[in-house]
């Protein structure tokens, strides 16, 4: 009978060691950008990362690197698709991502026409 009293606490102690906490979730931006630009998303608090995709002959196909804020927002995202000879650098500017490779002059206020003739229009949600 005494063995039974020792067996129950020992079993409870061992089951507590087996519990694993749930993995950190992906931030919404990490999930969205990884899906859009085809890189592996990372969980938890990430400061920066770099990923390189190789083909079966160990030739670089794609490169992705990014810097993230404490809140999990992408401050800078650089993509290079070697296979298709394309690339982009997205830079967070206030609430918008701008082209980091070819910065434009400051945009004219909404509805105004800039010197280049581009009309700047925004929708109700600030898009467009």
Automatic annotation (TrEMBL):
This is Lipoprotein ynfC. Keywords: Cell membrane, Lipoprotein, Membrane, Palmitate, Signal. It comes from the Bacteria. Pfam families: UPF0257. The keyword Lipid biosynthesis does not apply. One of its GO terms (cellular component) is plasma membrane. InterPro entries: UPF0257. Residues 107-128 are annotated as: Disordered. Residues 119-128 have a biased composition (Basic and acidic residues). It comes from Klebsiella pneumoniae.
